[in-house]
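Translate sequence into structure tokens.
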Amino acid sequence: MAFTVKNEVLIRVYVVLTVIMAVAAAIAWKTFQISTVEGEKWREKGKSLYIKRVPVEAERGNILTEDGNLLATSMPFFDIAFDPNSTGMDSLDWHLHLDSLAFCIATFVDPSFTPGGMREYLREQKQAIREYLQNARNAGKRYILIKRDATIEEKELISSFPLFNLGRYRGGLIILPKYKRQRPFGILANRTIGYVLGDSISVGLEGYFNEELKGEFGTHLMYRVGNDVWIPLENLAGIQPKPGHDIVTVLDMGIQAIVENALQKAMYRHKARYGTAIVMEVKTGAIKAIANLDWKKDGTLWENYNHAVGTLVEPGSTFKVASMLALLEDGFIDLHDSIDLEQGRTIYYDVELEDASPHTLNKTTIERAFAMSSNVGISKLVFENYATKNEAGKYLRRLRKFFLDLPTGIEIHGEPSPYFKRPYTEEDNWSGTTLPWMSIGYELALTPLQLLSFYNAIANNGIYVKPFLVTQVQQYDQTLKKYPVTQVKGRIASKNSIRKVQHLLRAVVDSTYGTAHKFRSDRFSFAGKTGTTQLGYQRLENKTRVRGYQASFAGYFPADDPVYSCFILISNPKEGGYYGSQVALPVFKEIAEKTFRTNLQLYPLVNDKPVALDTRKNLPDYDAGFVPDIKTVLSQLNVPHHDRSDNQWGIIRATHSDSLKIIKRPVANKRVPNVLGMGLRDALFLLENRGLKVEINGRYGRVRQQSIRPGTKAKGQTIWIRLG
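Result follows.
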């Protein structure tokens, strides 16, 4: 009996175990079937109903000039769509508004649709609602695009359409905001302002200050209704994006327009490969203008690359001033010393070096050799004082003290470091001819901005200031961060050496043998150095092959008390000459002249000494008007005066003591006032407030005559006044 019970229990256990194993096998098979056999089907089904948080773009901050002009701003645009399956929409609203909605869309949004055609299209969507619902809406249309990239005005118009004006849920209107970057000044400083594309491409100020400008993205729960089509999930709000901060630049768009226009004309005139121009404020290092022009495929000019910041070039003769400053600082020369120019030709280790322009000069002063840009003269000075003494390292160390070996740190990504060969190294291909060629701007490389920063230090009496573009970060006109002027402690050279180099740069312009003398101006003074660089040159056995030229000019103005430094570089001009004095210098002069005309700080003061007051006959007399305005003007002009009017309206009288007094001008409420001696604004205010109709003769000046006698009762008459 016990054996029978035991067997019965075992049988039951085996049955239960078998069932469990069968269920487990079934589950395993189903799991395998769902994940592997039917996996793609269920993954696609899941995607079609996928709900996720979608990033919501923040409004990007503005890029501004110091005076508040917009250089870059984000304008709102909208993708507007229609959800005919919105859960808040009922059939009564649909049928009531369908005809008029179709008419509005066809008429105001897309005239290519006829009202009847749009009505049928919308009706088809409505008729399919049941099918959409029964198939979990993943096969139905929940999104009908009405207009892409609508402006604010277009959005307001479409939102007012029948049915749409019932709102998001009842009317099915979907509005998805987005932003587009706009640059009101077009090409002006376009590359410097820059842009950002995704996470990989960031250019100019937009790229450098992207963290400050981009703001914080928000999120919104979105519901996928088709291939890459998402609509906001109903009744659920997201995280609102935070707008970005604004950055304030030091760019002056008046100077920028002058620079861009002058450079553009030179590019067309000389058919050059590219051109760049920079204007910097001497005392602060603020970049007031920066232009870069390249050719597009259609033959027009555009800012494709920031050559001023990112292109290393052999500077050529504009580098000679660095060699002269090194020689002066090391005490090797004085400007009145003599140098043999050998009639413009000399030999270094069987390699001939010649001056750019033929001449027959032998011995001359160092000052003249520099002003006429003698390659022979400058190279011999450096060769004799450094190379023959195996002191190339001393020369390079001196250049480092001028900060010529360092990038400027300008707020734009992609600035390369300057290139200088290491003395006597095989890796840098140092040879016996390296130092004489380096002294005149070859076998080394700088960006235009790096070289201008050096010239700016010379203009600033030896004080090097870091060039910069942005002065502050702000939000809602409140300053969040300021970027102060960065001035390097000490001077790049002694005051005496700087003064002598400044004299050399003046001689280039003022002396009759200077390379810039032909462009000397009687209206303003400037100083600087021309440069002409051979591009792609090859030293062959019996000649040097040149593939093109680079014209440049570096300088500052006014020469006596510099306000701006400026650098012009035009690469590979093909027409109208190729020398710096022919191609780059005219651009510099045009920029300087036009900047001079529009900038009062460049003019010398004419009232910096005390002057005697005008005699009584030249003081204003019998001028009348609103007393607070009169007192404000006289106070601003520092004219002594006494107010005895005790009234809102007064008249100025000159006294015998070279001062003025303001006496009362009576004005009655219902009478024609005396407006003689008043300006037009005050006269019109008084006359029209008494119901008089005013006719005016004359275009400017004060009231000299009035047709109705003062004190006459005002009855809405027409009064004539004459200005003069």
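Note: The radius of gyration is 40 Å.
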